[in-house]
């Protein structure tokens, strides 16, 4: 059985990619965010009013079609500007096929009547319960294994919440309009992040599950989520998004690293946050895309806080983009490899590398910020060794500053007020601070 978008070759945008070994990744670490609002405490399930009539059961998803891991987003169901919490262990991808029928409630004509197509706030789907499109071709089922799955009448998976390995989980369309999959103890495993917006959950005849606003415009859709992290959504170990053509995958790895890799497993971008097992990623409502360690400490950020309502989208070609209001505010192709942008930070072992790979700006574990060539010969340094745990940040005021572990400034470019927008590591062998208008305000050659 093939998954959605397989094109007949058996592949699926929701298949777990072959394991990406640490050896496939860059050996250095990238930047850490500051400032970042901390996640809030785990949300507990709120009482809901409507229970749907029971329907037949479905079990585990199509082989290779859905990643069976937890996505835990514990933002309180009451809208809040604070980031959502992502916790929970990873689990292996489900390898079993549907061993039962999608809930039908009888033949197809009666099924469309027996299984509703819509859900209003305050209702929920218990294990085995479902919604079905008016034409009877698509069914959204809360499976007994914990996974909320949208499948067609051929049992091909179109979308999944990626929350299997959580038996007994329920899907609740909370009274505030947020669609949430809750596990044991009321812990949120996945959410649409539509709190304050959602007025109706429906399965449409085109195979799209949609949370719509009162004007019937989409606040969330299963189709868009295949490539997107909505504001307030996140990824935990094994969770992923995949490009529409299936050629590139964004994965939160078990080792804590967020990576974009091709079908050949070649990593095209990495947050370089490995070494933090159990780490997770959040697309925060404040516009910042952040990788956290399991103890909720930020390890990397896009530095885009202030871009309220931004979403992260994985585009064709493997370019991960943070976009707000139709404008790209950060992307892996332009900012993720050779640039340190305003608001970003490099901690020990994290780096930026010139486009052709000849030079690397590295924050060493001893506290020294150095520029090295391909032979690892240091061609420039900040002279701040002897301060383990130091980090460097490009501040919003344009100053590049090395801080010790206690937050004391050790060195800076002295460019406060010069509107530096990013630090570029250049193939010519220099690290250069530029304004948004591409005017140089500092260079390692002269600094």
Provide an overview of this structure:
The protein is mainly β and 447 residues long. The protein has a domain at 337-447: Bulb-type lectin domain (Agglutinin, subunit A), CATH 2.90.10.10. It contains three helices and 37 strands. The chain has helices spanning 108-114, 222-225, 332-335; strands at residues 50-51, 118-119, 123-125, 130-132, 138-142, 148-152, 157-160, 170-173, 179-182, 188-191, 200-203, 209-212, 218-221, 228-229, 234-235, 240-242, 248-252, 258-262, 267-270, 280-283, 289-292, 298-301, 311-315, 319-324, 327-331, 339-341, 345-346, 351-353, 359-363, 369-373, 378-381, 391-394, 400-403, 409-412, 420-426, 430-435, 440-443. A five-stranded mixed beta sheet has the order 1-3-8-9-10, with no helix packed on it. A hairpin with a 5-residue loop joins strand 9 (179-182) and strand 10. The longest helix is centred in the N-terminal third of the chain and has 7 residues, at 108-114. The model is unreliable at 1-113 (pLDDT under 50).
